[in-house]
Amino acid sequence: MSKFNTKKTGFDSGIIAGTLTDKAGKYSDYELLRRVTLANLLFESDYYQSSDEIMKQIEDLCHKVDPEKIIELAIECRFQQKLRHTPLWLLILAQEIHGISVKDAIAKVANRPDMTIDLLQMLKVRNGSYKMSKPIKKGLAKAFDQYDEYQIAKYRKSNMELSLVDVVNLVHPKPTARNEVALKALVNDNLQAANTWESALSQGADKKETFERMISEKSLGSLAILRNVRNMKEAGLSRTMIQTAISQVKSSWLTPLNFLAAQRNAIEYTADIDEAMKNCFSGEKIKGTTILAIDVSGSMGQITSSQSSFSRMDLAFAMAATGSYIFEDIILVFTAGDDHHRVGKHLVVNNGKGLGIFNQATEINAQIGYGGIFTYQLCEWLKENGYAKDAERLVVISDSQDIDAHYGSDRKPDTSPYKNSYIIDISTHTHGIKTGNWTAEINGWSDKVFHYIKALEN
Question: pTM above 0.85?
């Protein structure tokens, strides 16, 4: 999530709505690096840019950004945006380009054993081998200090090209009281399988009995529960047992999209999944009335990356569902329009909570069109229809491809009726709206973007 965008204003050349324009937002090198990393799924193409282009942008910008800032950004990517590969890539680049030690950062960021495998595979992709610098080697070895026997057993990846024992043999971690027995067993190839549903089934256990046992023991992880609701149904678990499992979902590492994926697989459990989402993400409310505007333009309907089945609109829906439990009161707005005539269209829908908010999304799209977002026109419409006067803040969730800006309009959105206004950008495009009229431009798609708004206003 970015800092205030109040000092640097104006426009620059960049990609807006898929085309180069001189009306793109003007950013510092560090701001640009934040944009292309905080919502990025590494090595995966998005709607407007290939993965190679994105990777080159990240590397080029890392040459221009202070290495300490790169390390800070890597830590933010991991622990605020909950990304797995991008922070490792940033640390590799920081060490390679600037020669800075990344030992402590790697030890912190690689908080799952399989991330040590990921890092070595990235080095092989980049350099053709697993050869690593001393800081990276020491960082990987130090990372093992935080792993216990369960984690080492769970993530040993013995059926993969590179396994955890290979990492141990390459970096020689110093055993600790938490992992000494597990590391010795791993190297000797007699480590017992972790208590996971996958290991139980691989050993021939009955699927229904396995799920029921682990639910009763409360030993099934939160992400595993959300990913396996459909499997539980197919295995013949009772509705009551599945509801019990969903009620056990409690984790700070989940994202809104995890809940949306579960709901798409088992729509009859929407109320239970909503309640689990509420328990995970709701806390102290963001007070007052919030206009939450969702961009439903054509580009939002494209998949987030070449490897994903979810669109950016899915991300926006999941984010809005989460926001419905965090904002005290919301006015929910869909916004799109007609690109050809450069006219925006907007629609307020019934306020609701959770994942059921967007049941009418298809019908709403038919009413307002599939064109781009028009931020100037959106703000004018909110004022003309009396919504702005009742709201403390305006929050827009978009991929920041503003048609008003793209076609050279100098009209900037009027956000003056609100105490605060935000663009939450869920894309990785190099440039976005950034007209200088927003309290902050925020990049990413985890619940942490709402925490940022709360902290900023407090």
Answer: no
Q: Name which of 420, 378, 418 is nearest 398 in CA terms.
A: 378
Q: Which of 275, 262, 276, 211 is nearest to 238 (CA)?
A: 211
Q: Which of 375, 397, 401, 302 has its CA nearest to residue 17?
A: 401
Which of 336, 348, 410 lies closest to 374, judged by CA? 336
Euclidean distance between CA atoms 370 and 298, whole angstroms: 5
In the block, which residue shows the tokens 């290939």? 50
Cβ–Cβ < 8 Å for 304, 318: no
- CA atoms within 13 A of residue 375's CA, in its CB half-sphere: 30
Rg of the chain's alpha carbons, rounded to an integer? 23
Nearest of 319, 315, 348 to residue 331 by alpha carbon: 348
Region for residue 96 given its phi and psi (left: phi exceeds 0; alpha: psi -120 to 50; beta: otherwise): alpha
Pairwise CA distance, residues 338 & 74, whole Å: 39
Q: How far is CA 251 from the centre of its chain?
A: 15
Q: What is the block-wise mean pLDDT of the chain (458 residues), using blocks of 10 residues? A: 36 44 61 73 49 82 96 92 89 96 97 95 92 96 95 87 94 94 93 81 85 94 94 96 96 86 92 92 87 82 60 82 90 83 82 72 72 84 95 88 57 89 73 63 74 79
**For residue 16, what pLDDT is reported?**
42
Q: Provide CB contacts within 8 A for 57, sequence distance 6+.
A: 32, 36, 430
3-state secondary structure 233-267: HHHCCCHHHHHHHHHCCCCCCCCHHHHHHHHHHCH
List phi, psi (to 5°) of 167.
Answer: -60, -45
DSSP one-letter string for 337-366: EETTTTEEEEEEE----GGGGGTTHHHHHH
Beta strands in 274-432 (DSSP E): 286-295, 327-338, 343-349, 393-398, 420-425
Q: Residue type for 310, please?
A: F
Residue type, 325: Y
Q: What gap in Å lies between CA 265 and CA 256, rounded to an integer?
A: 15
